[in-house]
């Protein structure tokens, strides 16, 4: 399929899904909806929730197949408890381009497909006693994390909370592409009131914890444990005391023996130990020792051969515009784009990755990776057609190297919008 016929291929694929999906616009003012929850409640399967810049409360999405998109990417902030649940087989729910407060995003009991794309996590909007993992998953059969930065909350409060993990999941299948997962920093030791009472430094959080009957594929990504808290400063009164030792950094990736985990061209490392507490110059007390670095991997992580192969594109594009794709691979790789309207999670070890696009897909030959290792392709998007407000597609790139071997690259979710939006 040539780039000229790209939209034609998309239109044919649209016959397999809802072809007249509505776009529900959310904005602080001047839009049909002022909260994401109201738009989600009004939406039906296949609809797109388009969220303009602003800060919004969390929401609950139950048993629906929706695409939620920040417009532009990175401009909409979700600050409140958000739960995605009961997305059934054959359904796809995606969140693309949002900033999400750590501790606010949980997905549970989803037999269908979940796609988290271009998300960033920031400080939590939770009480100081609450764990604030960036993303928490339970019993989710098909999850892809694409181009995300998931960082757990640091310890916070006078009587500090434990730091949050970047990602935690149980009994779930998760593919992580081109993402960074980081545990939260433990709090520094500090004195409380008078008389030398103090809080000790806290450990760094795990970057990622996996339990139960879970599968993990890590590709072109990093997982890092959180930094340990700094040690207590030395004091001269009521008696000379040396600085305290820093806390240990968090484990990078911690897994139960039941977990099957694979990594290709990825890095997993423990968090840095906390700095030793300073000495007190007035009475010559000594600084404390630096905490030890956290363990990189707890459990069995199998390394797959092959280098990073990457697809990057916008989360959404309007009709009569150009979709710009950036492909990163090895010089000489022939790149083919799979695009479809359904999703799946199929671990394919010979391909070094997970197949993310369903069987009802088409292929677009994009070209050959040049000597620079980067291929840029522009695909024209034509008119979506009368009465069609949006369509959502699943994309994944495959790379055939000079030896003839094929490698699974990263995926993306693309929302094509009518120009009216």
Question: What does this molecule look like?
Answer:
This protein is mainly β. 4% of the residues lie in helices and 42% in strands. The two termini are 28 Å apart.
Short recap of the structure:
The chain is mainly beta and 421 residues long. The chain is 4% helix and 42% strand.
Layout: helices, strands, pairs:
Layout: H1 6-13, E1 23-26, H2 36-42, E2 48-51, E3 54-56, E4 60-62, E5 67-70, E6 76-78, E7 82-85, E8 92-96, E9 99-101, E10 105-117, E11 120-122, E12 135-146, E13 149-151, E14 167-170, E15 173-177, E16 180-182, E17 190-191, E18 198-199, E19 208-211, E20 215-219, E21 222-224, E22 253-255, E23 260-264, E24 267-269, E25 297-298, E26 301-304, E27 310-312, E28 316-318, E29 322-328, E30 334-340, E31 343-348, E32 353-357, E33 361-368, E34 374-380, E35 390-400, E36 406-417
Parallel strand pairs: 1-2, 2-5, 3-6, 4-7, 5-8, 6-9, 7-10, 8-10, 9-11, 10-12, 12-14, 12-15, 13-16, 14-19, 15-20, 16-21, 19-22, 20-23, 21-24, 22-25, 23-26, 28-36
Antiparallel strand pairs: 17-18, 27-29, 29-34, 30-33, 30-35, 31-32, 35-36
* SS field, number of helical segments: 2
Low-pLDDT parts are 1-5, 11-19
- What fraction strand? 35-45%
Distance between the termini: 28 Å
State the main characteristics.
42% strand; disordered N terminus; 421 residues; 16-stranded parallel β-sheet; globular; five-stranded mixed β-sheet; mainly beta; 4% helix; 2 helices
């Amino acid at each position: 399929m040539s780039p000229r016929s790209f939209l034609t291929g998309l239109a044919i694929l649209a016959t397999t899904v809802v072809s007249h999906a509505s776009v529900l616009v959310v904005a602080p003012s001047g839009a049909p909806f002022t909260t994401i929850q109201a738009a989600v409640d009004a939406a039906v399967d296949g609809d797109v929730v388009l969220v303009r810049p602003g800060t919004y409360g969390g929401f609950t999405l139950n048993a629906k197949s929706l695409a939620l998109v920040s417009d532009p990417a990175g401009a909409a902030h979700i600050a409140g408890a958000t739960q995605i649940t009961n997305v059934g087989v054959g359904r796809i729910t995606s969140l693309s381009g949002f900033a999400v407060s750590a501790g606010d995003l949980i997905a549970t009991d989803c037999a269908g497909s979940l796609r988290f794309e271009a998300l960033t996590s920031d400080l939590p909007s939770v009480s100081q006693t609450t764990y604030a993992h960036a993303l928490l998953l339970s019993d989710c059969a098909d999850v892809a994390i694409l181009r995300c930065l998931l960082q757990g909350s640091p310890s916070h409060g006078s009587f500090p909370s434990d730091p949050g993990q970047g990602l935690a999941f149980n009994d779930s299948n998760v593919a992580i592409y081109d993402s960074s997962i980081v545990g939260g920093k433990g709090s520094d030791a500090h004195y409380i009131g008078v008389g030398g009472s103090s809080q000790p430094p806290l450990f760094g959080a795990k970057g990622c914890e996996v339990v139960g009957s879970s599968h993990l594929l890590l590709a072109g990504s990093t997982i890092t444990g959180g930094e340990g808290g700094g040690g207590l400063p030395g004091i001269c009164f009521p008696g000379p005391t040396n600085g305290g030792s820093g806390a240990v950094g968090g484990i990078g990736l911690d897994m139960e023996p039941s977990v099957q985990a694979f990594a290709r061209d990825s890095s997993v490392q423990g968090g840095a130990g906390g700095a030793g507490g300073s000495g007190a110059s007035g009475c010559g007390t000594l600084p404390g020792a630096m905490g030890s670095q956290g363990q990189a991997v707890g459990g069995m992580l199998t390394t797959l051969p092959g280098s990073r192969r990457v697809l990057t594109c916008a989360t959404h594009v309007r009709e009569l515009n150009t979709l710009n794709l950036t492909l990163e691979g090895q010089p000489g790789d022939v790149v083919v784009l799979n695009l479809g309207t359904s999703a799946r999670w199929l671990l394919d070890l010979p391909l070094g990755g997970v197949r993310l696009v369903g069987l009802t897909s088409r292929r677009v030959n994009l070209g050959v990776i040049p000597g620079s290792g980067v291929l840029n392709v522009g695909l024209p998007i034509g008119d979506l057609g009368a009465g069609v407000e949006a369509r959502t597609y699943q994309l994944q790139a495959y790379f055939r190297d000079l030896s003839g071997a094929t490698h699974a690259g990263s995926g993306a979710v693309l929302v094509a919008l009518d120009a009216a939006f």
